[in-house]
Structure formats: structure tokens, C-alpha cells
Write a structure and sequence with these properties.
The chain is mainly alpha-helical. The chain is built from four helices and no strands. The protein has helices spanning 2-26, 44-59, 63-118, 129-142.
Length: 154
């Protein structure tokens, strides 16, 4: 019965993933523009000439092309300020949590100390058979876990 259920689950999962794979193929595929790489200049004075051409090309740009850069810089600045405020609020929350957890830790430590001071040691008398059984039980409970014990050598 279980293999049948597992086979049904596998079939459902594969059909879901097949549907997910088919849906993006229906959309038109945008092709990336082909970029042609210019050969690197071999001589240093050619590099200087190329840089000079780039500077002239930048200076010839109309003013409207330079304005979006200012808008982008201001939007980056606002995003930075938002992230900074968010980080500060997160930091303040974490500090509050730290104080709360340290108080809880102190309360638990003081409670554990009271229990240790109040607690009376167990009085076990091994003259009785029931006490011997209790001893075995306590040795299993308070002893190392079974995985740590060596039961047989390989």
C-alpha cells in the first residue's frame, strides 16, 4: 500500500514541475544584444588617445542625459537612509531582547541555586531489595547514554 502512495506522490510532483516548466516557454524570448569587444590598445599613447576620445564623448552628452544620474544618486541615498533606519531599529530590538534574556537567565540561575540549596540528598538504604532495584534504575537514568557505552568489541 505504501509504495502505491509514494508512486502517486511522485507522479503528482512531476506533473506540477512539468507545468511550471511549460509556462515560461509560452512567453516570447528576449534576446540579449550582441556586444562587440574592441581589441585592447597595444601602446600606451594609444590608450591616452582612447581615453581622450571618451572624455570628449562624455562632455558632448546633452544635459538631459546627466540628470538621471542625479536622480539615481538621490534614490540610492534615500534607500541607504531607509536601510540605515531599519538596521538601527533592528539593533534596538536586539538590545531589548538581550536585556530581557539576561534577566530571564538570572532568574533561572537563582531558581536553580535555590533548588540546589533546598534539595535533600536521596536516602537510599541498600539493605532492602527495593532499594537495590532503585539503584539500578538510577544508574541507567543518570549514567552515560547507551550509545556511549561499550557493549561489545569489534
Amino acid at each position: 500500500m505504501e509504495p502505491l502512495i509514494i508512486a502517486i506522490l511522485i507522479g503528482l510532483i512531476t506533473s506540477i514541475f512539468n507545468k511550471v516548466k511549460e509556462s515560461p516557454s509560452n512567453k516570447p524570448v528576449r534576446q540579449k544584444p550582441i556586444q562587440t569587444a574592441s581589441p585592447p590598445p597595444s601602446e600606451p599613447h594609444e590608450r591616452g588617445r582612447e581615453r581622450e576620445r571618451e572624455r570628449h564623448a562624455r562632455s558632448r552628452l546633452p544635459r538631459e542625459y546627466k540628470e538621471p544620474l542625479k536622480d539615481a544618486a538621490s534614490s540610492i541615498q534615500t534607500r541607504f537612509e531607509e536601510k540605515k533606519k531599519e538596521a538601527e531599529s533592528t539593533y534596538a530590538d536586539l538590545q531589548k531582547k538581550e536585556v530581557r534574556y539576561s534577566r530571564r537567565l538570572e532568574a533561572h540561575q537563582s531558581r536553580a541555586k535555590m533548588i540546589r540549596e533546598k534539595g535533600t540528598p536521596l536516602n537510599i538504604d541498600f539493605n532492602n531489595g527495593d532499594d537495590i532495584v532503585k539503584g539500578f534504575i538510577f544508574s541507567e537514568v543518570f549514567g552515560p547514554p547507551r550509545s556511549k557505552k561499550r557493549h561489545h568489541q569489534k
